[in-house]
Amino acid sequence: MMETTAGDTLQQFVTAPVRTATYKRLLYLLLAFPLGVAYFVAFTTGSSLGLGLAFTLVGLPVLLVTLVATTGAAGLEARLATVLLDQEVATPPSPRETLDSDDGYLAAVWRFATEPTTWTSVAVVLLKFVYGIVAFVVTITGTSLVGTLLAAPFVYDDPGANYQFGQYAVSTLPEAIGVAAVGVAGIWILCNVINVVAAAGGLMTDAFLSVGRERAA
Description:
Elements: H1 2-15, H2 20-52, H3 59-85, H4 95-99, H5 105-114, H6 116-150, H7 152-155, E1 164-165, E2 168-169, H8 173-209
Antiparallel strand pairs: 1-2
């Protein structure tokens, strides 16, 4: 069993650049930053406005709408993880299901407010902002570095290009090809880092949305 697991892990590492799953996970990471920013801005704006108006009749409905939207955003994150990461991720009850009640408006709001995933959804949305920054750094920095290394044989003699590694400067075509070879190895490393970081995002989402309820089938 251990040999099989090690063999599967090695195969996944070697084939990472040619597997469709890697590029689905890359898309997941590319979406993380803009979505994280949108979630953070929407939540902080809504919650700040609601708290500021809490002494009026407007504040509480604003807070409720903010929480409903936040739960919806967490549900979107669960679906993205399921589709793009091929992971089984718990999905929070939809706000419509939670608020739909024959017991009256107050009872429905109370049930929504006491649903654990209502508040773990807030954690998912806020942590998505931090995760999005990490994803942005990994994808942009990694792809830029690998692309620069791969381009060495074509631009190493361009006055505007600077392939300087400490005291060593690339000045010949064989040296530039050697740099490009490092870039090829970097593709494998970057693809596997993308897979790991993306998988971590799915696990984080699942961990928070599984609190207080059975794991989604």
